[in-house]
Amino acid sequence: MTTKTKKIDMKSLTLEELTVEMDRLGEKAFRAKQLYSWMHEKLALGFEEMTNLSRQFRETLQEKYVYVTLEPVEVQTSHIDGTQKYLFRLPDGLVIESVLMRYRHGNSVCISSQAGCRMGCRFCASTIGGLERSLRASEMLEQIYRIQKLSGERVSHVVVMGTGEPLDNYENLLRFLGLLTGEGGLHISQRNVTVSTCGIVPNILRLAQEGLQITLALSLHAATQEKRRELMPIANKYQLSEVLSACEEYQKKTGRRMTFEYSLVGGVNDSLEDVRQLAAIVKPLHGHVNLIPVNPVRERTFSQPEKKVVNDFKNNLENYGINVTIRREMGRDIDGACGQLRKSYMEGRSQC
Prior knowledge:
The protein is built from eleven helices and 14 strands. The protein is α/β, with parallel strands linked by helices.
């Protein structure tokens, strides 16, 4: 009985790895550069589009390699600000979501790093249903590539802040970052890439050693260990003091200022005492606070604070000398919150 050889995911290979593959096939090294350009620069949808390769060679590639592309299932466009939310189908049938946001400084794409999430944050729709699997580097790249191809607009900023915990998919994340920011592809500046984490301490420390210039955003959401544990199960594994120490190390090693994401939940973490405690945490790190009025999720009891409460929270933080912004609500008239479009689709499928 013969075992079927698993095909290699070509779009996840570095140029050096692709060169080795071409040598293995008896092809010249320049073939690797041709393929790399088709995948990461011209954003080809398949081998058949690679017209400067012979038909026979393309058939060989089809036989030996997987060429990952994502199928658009649904696109929602906001009538308010033009934000577009994409639902993509992965090659194995799972679905993920991505968002295109248009700003004056350029187009930003928020991508998912996993199909589902196992972190269990109480206010997040992405984690309902748990983790199905982590995404490969090619599947993370493809979200950007498809959006750029479908919109016809250049993407200049990338935020890994959609469904999933990026540092729970560490190796694929690193490979993705190398392909995204390296030469020969979209070559997006590392300084234009933000990666979020809910606080996986060992991998924050690993990331600090990688020599990258990306922005790390900590999903903080509470300024005490007790309150954080109520909102985020990850706090049962890592003390807030450990997380903040890892953030300090990241900042020291990279010279990059930390961003702290803080979802404001009405009556839970929006008091004057919360302001004082948050300022005490952030000030020594010279961090930037991004306030996010929570998006209500049907399965949760959390509600968004009134606008005045949000503005007062911001102003009071600024009085402590903290650099703070309120995240602009992009795509309010569509399934804009993280995980909502995917969740709606899956619920609809289960009722069929």
